[in-house]
Write a structure and sequence with these properties.
Number of domains: 1
Order of helices and strands: HHHHHHHEEHH
Number of strands: 2
Strand content: under 5%
Helix content: over 70%
Distance between the termini: 23 Å
Shape: globular
Number of helices: 9
Strand order of the largest sheet: 1-2
Amino acid sequence: MAITKQLSEFPEIIELRDKLTRRESLNNRDLQLIDELCKETGWTAKDIMDEIKDLDKEPLTLVDKYQKLLEKYFNEALELKEKGDYIQAGEKLWGAVTFLIKLYASKRNITVMHWSHGKLFQFVENNVDKRLIKLSDSSEISPREVFYELLIEAGALHNNFYEGDLPDDAFEMIFNKVVRLIKKVKEI
């Protein structure tokens, strides 16, 4: 999907991108939008603003950026889990998953505007192969199925950020499953 068509769905993002590019002051509405995007993605405000400023860049030029951010959020999630901060750990892992999808897309020169979970699922539906592939351990897997599982499982961690009601055992199981799925996607 062309970036202009994607951006036309979010006129407030275009306005914000223009302000950020011109280094203008942001008003309360702009800051609320950034806050909403942080809540949706699990990213920091700085990473959201950088992403908005980069919307016009060719996706292939963002591969290294997304790789670094994926690793940053992934490692922060692991550290937070070790410290026992399950709420923040789950949210950071959700952020890592969204960067993983952006990385996967950018390597294929596709722009993904992911301001909603539905957009992420649509990207997977339309751009990730559903045919089985062989992994290094000789097992077979559908890349699309792995991405769907990632979104579903990591989405539960993201939801827990707001509700905070996942029992510790459930959190551990889901968190560890998302970590394994991220490793599978890296192999794919």
